[in-house]
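Researcher: I'd like a structural prediction for the single chain below. Treat it as a standalone chain; there are no partners to consider.
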Amino acid sequence: MPKNELISRYEQAAAILPSRLRKAALALSNEEKAAAEELRLRAGRPLTVLLPTGEAALEAEVEPEELETLCDIATEFSRYASSETIREGFLPVRGGFRVGLCGTAVMKAGVNTNLKNLSSAVIRIARERRGVASNLAPMLFQNGNFVNTLILSPPGGGKTTLLRDLVRCLSEGGPSCPPQRISLIDERGEVAVVCQGTPQMDVGPRTDVLDACPKALGIPIVLRAMNPQIIAVDEITVREDLTAISMAAGCGVGLLATIHASGVPELLQKPLYRLLLENQVFRLAVRILRDHGGRAYELEELPC
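Model: Treating it as a single chain, here is the predicted structure.
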């Protein structure tokens, strides 16, 4: 993404802030704006910006009522319409941003129904990296068929960014990559960033998004309703996810998923993921390698 677009995305994210904090956020240099990944608000603490070198404090202390104002701006002054995601701790924002929230959970019958007395918030500055998967997507096909694929990297390595662009590329298709009908289970709203029914990120013309739904529940829904060729999910974390994924594989549907792991050896050390390999649901893995020069993608076959 060109530098001017990176700066523009930062300034759009800063526009979600209350006016006093927005002024402090916009005082950064263009170099810092282009590199920024998050804006963080903690009641009674300075507003901070997350840079590649770590969190940097800005000259503005966050007041508790400013967290409430942030939510009003993010929901376009219609919190009731966003109550389902607020209780899950996040807000999708028009333009492709996502606000994470912390506060006091309101519990009823063992279920969280709302968040009150907000104490922290984080604005993630999502930036599409269109084209990062263009060369990779055709390599995930054998004899014209998509091969079930895992995307692996430690936290913060760029899994969601790569998943988003792979979904777009597979949905659009190309000379060596036939277009696919994709159902994207976007449990945490980070891939497509759906706002009022419309994905704010480009996930392709043949992609159907099931937003804010747990993967274990969402996979059977799209299997019944959407006739997908590929189901894409972000971050397999629990056994219920594996059960649903195995069911989908048994129905002949392609699978694309991400996992927090540096590589196959780490997968083998964790019982849950070791079971995933033993069941041979996935046949390929994409490792994301990160250094000072950026990110590279390494494709390998998973052990049978």
